[in-house]
Amino acid sequence: MTATPPGPCDSSAAGASLTTLPLHSIPDLPHALQRLLKQIPRGRVTTYGELARALGDIGAARWVGEYLAAHPHDDGCPCHRVVRSTGDVGLYVTRHSADKTEKLRQEGVNVADGRVDLSRFSFNAFRSSAPLAALCELQQRIPGQLRMVPLQRTPQHVGGVDVSYVSRTEAVAAFVLVDVPSCQLVWSASVRADVTFPYISGYLSFRELPILLKLFEAVRSADRVPDVTFVDGNGILHPRRAGSASCFGLAAGTPTIGVGKKLLCGRVDANECTEELADECAGLHVQRIVHNDEPVGFAVQAGPKNRPFFVSPGHLTDLSTALSATRLVLGNRRLPLPIAFADRESRKEAQRIKAQKQQPR
DNA sequence: GCGACAG
DNA sequence: ATCTTGTCGC
After folding, report:
1. Are residues A96 and A161 in the same domain?
2. Measured CA angle at A303 (ends A295, A319), to 5 deg
3. Residues 123-162, chain A: which have Cβ under 7 A from strand B?
4. Do A165 and A257 belong together in one domain?
5. Which nucleotide is at minimal CA–C1' distance from A245?
6. Bases in strand B with any atom closer than 7 Å to a protein CB
7. Is the CB of A204 under 7 A from strand B?
8. For the domain that residue A39 is a member of, what is the CATH number?
9. Residue A6 forms part of a structural domain
10. DSSP secondary structure string, A190-246?
11. Does the pTM exceed 0.85?
């Protein structure tokens, strides 16, 4: 007998545990960025993209820009030394680019026509542990631990989870329990938590996993664990097959299905896929999503005037199950009902908390 | 200048 | 995701 090579979604790995997802070591990205910032010498500049690269992924450039535009700032802060890759001075934390230009000139950086000559002034020799590169490597070990298997039976209870934000640092996660086949919302719960990891495309799980696990603990305590849970984020429809639905399913040890409103990666197969459809849902369009020559999910259009959504298996489900379960809970809305309900509940709870903070009595 | 990268 | 005026449609 020849050994089976461990491939993506292979079922040879041991049972999932929290050690496979070391949540205790999620890096403090804002702190890492602050440390990099201090390394830029007086009289030199760097770019948002170079800082992102030093953090371990150029994809974090947008967050670097957003963070520096509104961060804890003081007199000694060197954030004026970060400019756009074009050389344009760019935005400043004071909202006045002229302040940034003035500070640069004071330390000998020429600014002509709103631009810096990067070939003369740029600094890129950062010392960094590249925390995002480490997270990327962690993600690459996820797919081998996922179980792509069908559900044992038709689900009777389907869960949905979504996260809303009360502020930049505080989140609310809501869980809804939907009965099948009535599609009625039969129970819901929510939890609050501080969130410090930023949103960076491809790393959503590190932002939302802690609060999702806290939420699922509450679900367990109430003995309301569903047969499968829909998550507001992709499953294996991810550059490294490690979307938030997959990571959540793995960490919680529960079957999950991912739902995205935009296509994160891969391409929509031009051919309508008719085989998976036992066509009883009129006007339902389904097309395969292929990434790196692998089928990873489906684009589902519920109704002719709806934009499609993108469904993929997370953990303890497979492609076929993800689609069939979706059809079980597809109401008249654009999105599967567990996602629509969880979205509504988490927003409602976030609004309630905001109002309560303004009017404490 | 345009397109682009879940939430 | 959130912010946020007006606008469109059921």
Report:
1. no
2. 20
3. 162
4. yes
5. B6
6. 5-7
7. yes
8. 1.10.10.10
9. no
10. EEEEE--SPP-TT-HHHHHHHHHHHHHHHHHHTT---SEEEESS-SS-STTS--HHH
11. yes
Do A44 and A112 lie in one domain? The reply is yes
Q: What Å value separates CA A260 and C1' C6?
A: 28
Closest nucleotide relative to residue A206's CA, C1' based: B7
Residues A123, A31 share a domain: yes
Residue A351's nearest nucleotide, by CA–C1', is C2
Domain that holds residue A179: 143-358
Q: Is A9 a catalytic residue?
A: no
- Are residue A343 and residue A198 in the same domain, yes or no? yes
Would you say residue A19 lies in a domain?
no
Do A66 and A150 reside in the same domain of the chain?
Answer: no
Which of these is catalytic: A79, A183, A247, A281? A79
A114 lies in the same domain as A149: no
Kindly state whether residues A116 and A209 are assigned to the same domain.
no
The answer to whether some atom of strand C lies closer than 7 Å to the beta carbon of A187 is no
Average per-residue pLDDT in chain A?
Answer: 89
Q: Which of A132, A156, A191 is the last residue of a domain?
A: A132
Q: Which residue has the tokens 């709870």?
A: A349
Q: Regarding predicted confidence, which is higher, A307 or A176? A: A176
Q: Is the pLDDT of residue A335 over 60?
A: yes
The string of pLDDT tens digits covering residues A156-184 is 999 999 999 999 999 999 999 999 999 99
Specify the pLDDT at position A10.
38
Closest-CA residue to A147 (of A255, A290, A232, A276)? A255
Å: A78 CA to B7 C1': 30
Q: Residue A356: is it exposed, middle or buried by C-beta count within 10 angstroms (0-12/13-18/19+)?
A: exposed
